[in-house]
Design goal:
With 310 residues, this protein is α+β, with helices and mostly antiparallel strands. It is 34% helix and 13% strand. It has one domain (1-310). It has helices at 3-17, 32-43, 57-61, 102-121, 137-143, 191-195, 213-219, 242-245, 265-269, 272-277, 280-286, 296-308, and strands at residues 22-27, 72-79, 92-93, 126-129, 148-149, 155-156, 164-171, 201-202, 206-207, 236-238. A 4-stranded antiparallel β-sheet has the order 1-2-7-4, with helices on both faces. Strands 3-10 form a two-stranded parallel sheet. Strands 5-6 form a two-stranded antiparallel ribbon. The radius of gyration is 20 Å and the shape is globular. The mean pLDDT is 91.
Length: 310
């Protein structure tokens, strides 16, 4: 077995050992087609006030700008589908936020991944990313054979649906490359489009981010939410899972085995009134390692009051 094949085998076996349920590899190239789509999306204003989406455009489309000499882009998927659900009547929180902040969890695992690779292969240049840098993760995932982009904008796999995080490792190591995922298995299904409470899903797999409940409850930092969204949030306090809940492919979702994603009890059990009674000190203590800290205490209260007054 030559070094390229042996290194590829090592990477895929290591990914499995570290708890990733998929590992695919694509050749590091410029994503010119994706660049045009991203530019058109930005020009439509679908990013709303997410100005960071406009930044570092060249870095998003060219992996060699992130890792000089980049040869390969490794896509890793990490399941987060929980075995527990929230108690009936509690304010809805997107399932990805039930446990510890995935940025912290997966970033540490990616650093460990690279550390092991360097110990077994030698000095390689590489960087790991998980939803916090200018990387087009879904594009690389399809190029690595993981799945296809659904009408709801999520990466969907035939084996396990879409309740997973996408992590990316860019390395200057030549590897064997997987075939891109070429087929779209959404067909004529419109369940996600029809179910979206705010009509954020546009034709041709475009998402108007500025209309998405996740945008309003997490990204938008205004002191007040817009009145025209009244009665449209379907009790979602942080994020939204509607388009994933109705997706037929998520009938294949299985509970994760990552201890760090064990749900925080308060997320499963607190009523709206109990959330509103919580002090900022308690919030910071309970959710210091939770994705909810992104909205901060005042953002969570704003969202809750908006729901309460519907």
């Amino acid at each position: 077995m030559d070094s390229t094949a042996s290194h590829t085998t090592l990477i895929k076996s290591l990914a499995q050992e570290l708890g990733f349920h998929y590992c695919g590899i694509a050749k590091a190239v410029r994503l010119d087609d994706d660049a045009r789509r991203l530019e058109a999306w930005l020009n439509k204003g679908f990013h709303g006030q997410m100005q960071y989406m406009e930044n570092h455009f060249d870095l998003r489309i060219d992996p060699s700008r992130l890792v000089p000499g980049a040869k390969s882009v490794i896509t890793l998927l990490k399941n987060y589908y929980p075995s527990q659900e929230q108690k009936a009547g509690t304010p809805h929180i997107a399932r990805y936020a039930f446990g510890k902040d995935y940025h912290e969890v997966i970033r540490e695992q990616l650093n460990h991944f690279l550390h092991i690779l360097r110990g077994k292969i030698g000095e390689i240049q590489g960087r790991g990313f998980v939803d916090s840098a200018p990387v087009l993760e879904r594009s690389w995932a399809t190029r690595s054979g993981a799945g296809w982009i659904g009408k709801n904008g999520n990466l969907i796999t035939r084996q396990s649906g879409s309740f997973f995080f996408i992590a990316t490792l860019i390395v200057d190591l030549p590897l064997e490359y997987d075939d891109p995922f070429a087929k779209d298995y959404c067909g004529s299904c419109r369940k996600c489009i029809d179910a979206c409470p705010t009509d954020a899903i546009e034709p041709d797999k475009e998402i108007n981010g500025s209309k998405c409940i996740s945008y309003y409850t997490i990204e938008l930092k205004d002191a007040m939410l817009p009145d025209n969204m009244k009665d449209k949030f379907d009790n979602w306090m942080f994020g939204c899972d509607v388009c994933q809940e109705v997706c037929p492919w998520n009938r294949f979702s299985k509970p994760h085995t990552e201890p760090a994603f064990t749900p925080i009890p308060e997320i499963l059990n607190l009523s709206t009134s109990e959330w509103l009674e919580m002090s900022e000190i308690t919030f910071r203590e309970v959710f210091r390692h939770s994705p909810l800290k992104r909205s901060k205490f005042n953002g969570i209260r704003r969202n809750l009051n908006f729901l309460k007054n519907d």
